[in-house]
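In the previous chapter we treated chains in isolation. Here, by contrast, the input contains two separate entities that must be folded as one system, with a combined length of 475 residues.
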Amino acid sequence: MQEIKSYSEILSELYVILSPYNTKKRTLDEETELVADIGLDSLQVMQILLEVEDRFDISIPLNIIPDVRTVKDFASQLERLIAKS
Amino acid sequence: MSLFDKFRNLAKAREALLESGCDPFSVVLDEVLSSTEGIIGGRRTILAGTNNYLGLTFHQDCIDAAGVALAKEGTGTTGSRMANGTFSGHVALEREIAEFYQVRSSIVFSTGYLANLGMLSTLAGSDDVILLDADCHASIYDGCRMGDAEVIRFRHNNSSDLEKRMRRLGDRATRTIILVEGIYSMLGDRAPLKEIAEIKKKYNAFLVVDEAHSLGVLGQNGRGLAEEAGVEDSVDLIVGTFSKSLGATGGFCVSNHRELDMIRFASRPYIFTASPSPSVIASTRAALQILKTQPALRKKLWKNVEHLYKRLQRAGFKVGPEPSPVVATLLDTKEEGIRLWKELMDNGVYVNLVLPPAAPGEACLLRCSVSAGHSEEQIESICLAFESFK
């Protein structure tokens, strides 16, 4: 598996993972809100967590969810978790 | 913006359901005729969604014991276990459960939900990790959320995914609680507990099994999946409920760890709630005796399970992964699920309708719970009601 560490690389990967869920075809950027803009439901959030965990080879604690509202929040949390792993 | 705006989507979903001509989440049993039959909407209905696995809710011994306790000790304890709410029956039940599981001690809680809340929120601290199966019950998720531990999910019944996550934890693996269920409440499948116990041992972790749906159902003595899988020595703590096989309400946990008793003094869901009523404790104690001494009930239950599971499978329904007292039928769409549920009700059969997100994945499922109390004729009627669905 490719080692991805920089914030911008994490962000690019995140856009790829989120893309199939972006059925409203919103332009994704760091300020995009995962629920309000993309319209993710709780099941989709759980599915995305699994995909992201596999992609970055990390485990994501559910505890981070309340702190994640935007793509930027998500990428920042991932950056922290990857650095810790 | 009103406080109630947040419920708008829920209200819309409920309205849509009502427009489809049924109200599966507000069913009222006008009369309860037996452990397996009631009157719903004026119709005699077979109850096939009540988790009453051994059919003990109307057992004469349980009713008699509850009646005696009611007359002798009153209707309620009016207090917490920590204050005035511990009667001799509560202590006796704790002793009897511990003896049944052949462990050092047990704690009785007011409900199964509270048992998970009470144990998980207290046991795991801020330096600890909880690794739980993704399909665990809401009470387990809520118990985790109430505590301070880091909470990580692993893929349902996937031991290699669990091990991968244990590996990632490195030194923290020894401060990790692995959490699984004996039988999962929605699909009725068992945890691969032998493999999970091996992983627990390899990483020197802590293993908790919720036997809510497997107590009285699995194992030679009815102790659940840990007994059936032969790994009771590897399980640190078992959580369970009295509201299924034992036909009452309440919850418990058992353990060989000396420290279990200390949880009482730290667990808010144990301390700050009223204890179970004396009649509930008395009927639970009677039911536990029946569970221990009448293995024929378990045999009858499994006979009924095999009958229903095979018939539904043969009729072309997509059923849960293995026969168990929870027989789940998976439907591709919500509409199809609602239609089948309604038809079953019209044919005098009550089962549980489960819609996402309560159902795993996108599927909708109809969940039958089979009972030892079901007669052959009742199981046959349930099969026929399903088979008549077009």
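Chain A has a mean pLDDT of 91. The CA atoms of residues 3 and 56 of chain A lie 8 Å apart. Compare these points with the single-chain example from earlier in the chapter.
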